[in-house]
Write a structure and sequence with these properties.
Elements (H helix, E strand, L loop, with lengths): L29 H11 L2 E11 L4 E4 L6 E8 L1 E5 L6 E5 L3 E4 L5 E4 L9 E2 L9 E2 L9 E10 L5 H4 L6 E3 L6 H16 L7 H24 L11 H12 L7 H8 L3 H12 L3 H19 L4 H7 L5 H12 L3 H8 L2
Parallel strand pairs: 1-9, 2-8
Antiparallel strand pairs: 1-10, 2-7, 3-6, 3-10, 4-5, 4-7, 6-11
Amino acid sequence: MAQRSCFLADRTGSEFAGWLWLNFAYGPCMSEVTSKLLDLIRVKGAAYIGKNLDPAWNMVVDEHQNLARFHLVLSGSTWIELPGKEKRERVDAGEFVIIPNGRKHALREGPNTQNETLHNIPDAEIGPVFERLNKEQHQTSILCGYFKMSSTAPPALISQLPSMLIERRNVGKRQDKIGLIVRLVEAELSRETAPHKAVLNRLTEILCIYAIHYWIEREILPDGRLNTLSDPRLHNVLNEIHEDPTAAWTVESLAKLCGLSRTAFAVYFKTALGMTPINYIVTWRVQVARQLLEDGELTLDEIAQKTGYTDVNAFNRAFKRVTGSSPGIFRRISRK
């Protein structure tokens, strides 16, 4: 399945074992780091369907690259499951889940409900479809939607998001804020008139930002990770690499972008990202190649050119070193 281009690679790979683990003693405090990172992350959301689901029900949401998905349970409960039962969780009323990488997933009344029906994102010209919230017994109401993150979001941060991010109810003081937003969503869907799409979009955007905020504070900052990514110099370097993977990048040229000497930059970069600048470039090029192999009909020579390799044999070697398989085998497996 295709993944978003801003996601670097499978985090289970050995190359990412030390990914973004920093040791810092005099950096800014957690709240300052969080503020800087959140300022770089902006989301544009769309709530596109609100459904009252009667027993027995289930729904499969197809994969869509470049979009993160969210589901807010307003009443009842649902089980959400990734392909192959890789991860399966129950989500209750007042809780919501984000699938950051747009992977295919299923929502089920029970953990083993079958008879799947495919549910695609409606065409933007058709517009959203909402049903009035119904809290009858044994009925589940869910607000579903999607959002995109802005290009300013640090890819090295976004790549660390879990495959499924769940915000639980009644968890600490943050639930007061999330509970307020959920009540506003419920009020909008309970109106006598049709719900206002723009209002629902803004409310769900806030929910998504809160979820990412709490994830950063809960999972990332306590370990000292990502402090360096709040540095705009490194952010600029990563953006340049991502925007033009075909460029003949060298440690020297990247060091100039960062305003550091070659040696100081190499140490700084590896401390922040757990790999050398050159290894990072190779990994990013391979990630771009993976998407081209999955999504298009380009030849291997064309993909090699688009990812900065003039020699297809060099491209094949780099791809196999990162993924463990050749580009041809990867393409055949991904299209089955």
